[in-house]
């Protein structure tokens, strides 16, 4: 007889385990030398209970999937693991220190491109030291590279002044494209032209700015017509 085959999608729930490292201690009974303990496996964060897999999942969940730390804390809590978000945040910071060489290489690759897209976006930090919760901060994104080797870097600052892009792209010699936001206008960035070959504006942003300006002019004309 024949058989029928059907397929069904299945997902295995998260599995959490404890890895125990046992280090042997050796000593010589016939001499007075101190005992010697075998080395433990190298860890990304010394004296931390987080394995490399935990740290990789933490970073991917936060920065790739966009899941905040307090929600990842809840995910672990459902599995019976209580790790406060403060500890998770410390792990993220410690991992970033190890990833700095990779970031440097990415910035070198960014500067090899003849064209860089640069944009700034407002962000609000609620519990930043020595700053009011309503203060505005900025996340600067710089993107370049061919389609198969894209480079995208994010830099956090508390200002959108022209000194910020000058610092971020100080050693860059190429073309920079920005939007039409006031802090990115060519008039304000004129000093930066000494460093870059060209500074161009996004066409869509420029058109939107002109449309807004035309709307304002139209409103003024209509108001004057009504008054006359």
From TrEMBL:
Highest taxon above the source species: Bacteria
Residues of the Transposase IS66 zinc-finger binding domain: 1-32
All residue ranges annotated as the Transposase IS66 central domain in the record: 47-181
Family matches, as InterPro entries: Transposase-related, Transposase_IS66_central, Znf_dom_IS66
Classification via NCBIfam families: transpos_IS66 (NF033517)
Entries under PANTHER family matching the protein: BLL1576 PROTEIN (PTHR33678)
Protein name: ISPpu15, transposase
């Amino acid at each position: 007889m024949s058989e029928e085959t059907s397929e069904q999608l299945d997902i295995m729930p998260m599995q959490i385990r404890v890895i125990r490292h046992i280090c042997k201690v050796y000593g010589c009974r016939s001499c007075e030398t101190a005992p010697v303990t075998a080395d433990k496996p190298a860890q990304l964060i010394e004296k931390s209970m987080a394995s490399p897999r935990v740290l990789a999942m933490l970073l991917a969940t936060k920065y790739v999937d966009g899941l905040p730390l307090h929600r990842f804390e809840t995910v672990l809590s459902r599995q019976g693991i209580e790790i406060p978000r403060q500890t998770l945040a410390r792990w993220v910071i410690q991992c970033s220190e190890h990833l700095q060489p990779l970031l440097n290489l990415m910035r070198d690759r960014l500067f090899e491109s003849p064209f860089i897209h640069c944009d700034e976006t407002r962000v609000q930090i609620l519990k930043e030291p020595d700053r009011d919760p309503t203060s505005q901060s900025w996340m600067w994104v710089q993107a370049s590279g061919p389609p198969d080797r894209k480079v995208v870097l994010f830099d956090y600052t508390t200002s959108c002044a022209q000194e910020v892009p000058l610092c971020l792209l100080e050693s860059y010699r190429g073309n920079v494209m920005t939007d039409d936001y006031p802090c990115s206008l060519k008039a304000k960035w004129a000093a930066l032209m000494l460093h870059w070959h060209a500074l161009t504006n996004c066409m869509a942003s420029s058109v939107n700015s002109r449309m807004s300006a035309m709307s304002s002019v139209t409103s003024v004309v209509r108001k004057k017509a009504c008054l006359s």
